[in-house]
Amino acid sequence: MKATTKIALALTVSSSLFAGVASAASWQDQLSNAANTLSQNNANSASTTTQNNGMSLGALAGLLNGGNQQLSANSMTNAAGVLQYCVQNNVVNNNVSSVKDQLLSKLGLTDTAKAQETTDYKQGLMGLLNTGSDQQVNLKSLGNTELGKKVKTKACDLVLKQSKQFIS
């Protein structure tokens, strides 16, 4: 073979090899992009199953089916505020106002202004239940889904029962 033919053949082979490497890099980029897109789509679909406060439906079901500590107040002042929230939002009405008033009286917070100064009470009024398991459940943000309503009702019923035990 002539030298020029060998050089031309070598250039052709090396060009093909470089094209193959570039093609492989392009495929790798395409696979990487596809994987990123897929993971973003999964994250987006997961976020559609959460409520406004970021609680997934599974977490709401866990609160509903979990132990009473998960939806019981960690302080009686917070319980009084939550009871008022429950009354104002028509979650329960089983003589809740009377129990709340007796509870505030027993805590020495019959003066509304004095009660309003208590952080736990104010949080309860906003629907923030500070639980016995050292978490905070935002009743307001549970929404009006069937599951959200059930969790709110269970929380209000448990706090009412807890308050009745405290005042008796």
SSE blueprint and pairings:
Blueprint: H1 3-47, H2 57-65, H3 76-88, H4 96-106, H5 112-116, H6 119-125, E1 128-130, E2 136-138, H7 146-167
Antiparallel strand pairs: 1-2
Protein name: DUF2501 domain-containing protein
Signal peptide: 1-24
InterPro entries: DUF2501
Give a quick summary of the entry.
Pfam families: DUF2501. With 168 residues, the chain is mainly alpha-helical. The protein has helices spanning 3-47, 57-65, 76-88, 96-106, 112-116, 119-125, 146-167, and strands at 128-130, 136-138.
Radius of gyration: 31 Å
| Number of contiguous helices | 7
Number of domains: 2
Largest sheet: 2 strands, antiparallel
> Strands across the major sheet, in which order?
1-2
Number of strands: 2
Helix content: 55-70%
Order of helices and strands: HHHHHHEEH
Q: What share of residues are in beta strands?
A: under 5%
Measured between the Cα atoms of the first and last residue, the distance is: 108 Å
User: What would the average pLDDT be, to the nearest integer?
Assistant: 74
Outline the low-pLDDT stretches.
41-54
Shape: elongated
- Look at the helices and sheets and give the structural class: mainly alpha
Account of the protein in words:
This protein has 168 residues and is mainly alpha-helical. It has 2 domains: 1-48; 57-167. Helices cover 67% and strands 4% of the residues. It contains 7 helices and 2 strands; from the N terminus they run ααααααββα. It has helices spanning 3-47, 57-65, 76-88, 96-106, 112-116, 119-125, 146-167; strands at residues 128-130, 136-138. The chain has a two-stranded antiparallel ribbon. A hairpin with a 5-residue loop joins strand 1 and strand 2 (136-138). Helix 3 (76-88) packs parallel to helix 6 and helix 4 (96-106) crosses helix 7. The protein is elongated and about 110 Å long. Residues 41-54 have low confidence and may be disordered.
